[in-house]
Design goal:
The chain is of the alpha+beta class. It folds into two domains: about 140 residues, no CATH class; about 60 residues, Orthogonal Bundle (Arc Repressor Mutant, subunit A), CATH 1.10.10. A hairpin with a 6-residue loop joins strand 5 and strand 6. The N and C termini lie close together (about 10 Å).
Length: about 220
């Protein structure tokens, strides 16, 4: 996995070079907000390991035919997921009526347009990173087909479904208990799925301790 700063710069430059919309391109050239960068650094990248299907400062139309920008849009296969980092400063503590109503309209219109919207508090990124990482795994899970690849055996397919239901990496022992097979058999299945790049090792070097789905 690339160092975060390198991966972030490559991803951002790719978005700039491929963007034909001058409004979004100019916004991207100014750089991402501090909250968005910290979310990517502490939550998204350590959890997912790449920025595939993720687009910063994504432009959407509002009710008055104007333009708004999502901090991050996650759009695998044409689906629409939006992530926004909610800061906590004077403007958040003293939210006036007009701003509050506008925020509600924004969320409502995104929902009506088919977006799955995920607001994340900046303070949670700093204070509760593990919970945020679990939230992102659950969020991404909504966009992954519930069907396992057709070439898998029924045991392998059940491992994939089991991983999708969990909000954390799994161990060979808990998989063995779930499938009612030996720990050795469970490890063999996990190894085969890693070889097929369906799973990746989440922890352990000489001997893998936990596994998770590959989102690449």
């Amino acid at each position: 996995m690339q160092p975060f700063e390198q991966a972030l710069n490559v991803w951002l430059q790719k978005n700039i070079s491929e963007e034909k919309n001058h409004r979004r391109r100019e916004i991207l050239k100014k750089g991402l907000g501090h909250g968005t960068v910290e979310f990517l650094r502490l939550i998204w990248y350590p959890t997912i390991g790449n920025f595939k299907h993720l687009y910063p400062e994504w432009e959407v139309r509002d009710f008055n035919n104007g333009y708004r920008y999502l901090d991050l849009a996650y759009m695998p296969g044409g689906t629409k997921g939006g992530i926004e980092i909610q800061g906590y400063g004077p403007h958040a503590r003293d939210l006036d009526v007009k701003r509050f109503k506008d925020l509600c309209w924004r969320h409502s219109l995104l929902a009506l347009d088919g977006w799955t919207f995920l607001p994340i508090a900046y303070l949670s990124i700093k204070d509760e990173p593990k919970q945020c990482q679990q939230l992102i795994l659950s969020f991404i899970g909504k966009f992954i087909s519930t069907k396992a690849p057709s070439h898998l055996s029924w045991l392998e397919a059940e491992v994939v479904r089991f991983c999708r239901r969990m909000l954390r990496p799994i161990t060979p022992l808990e998989l063995a208990k779930h499938l009612r097979i030996s720990d050795r058999h469970a490890r063999k299945i996990l190894h085969r799925l890693v070889e097929q790049q369906i799973l990746v090792v989440a922890s352990g070097k000489e001997r893998a301790r936990t596994y998770k789905l590959s989102y690449g």
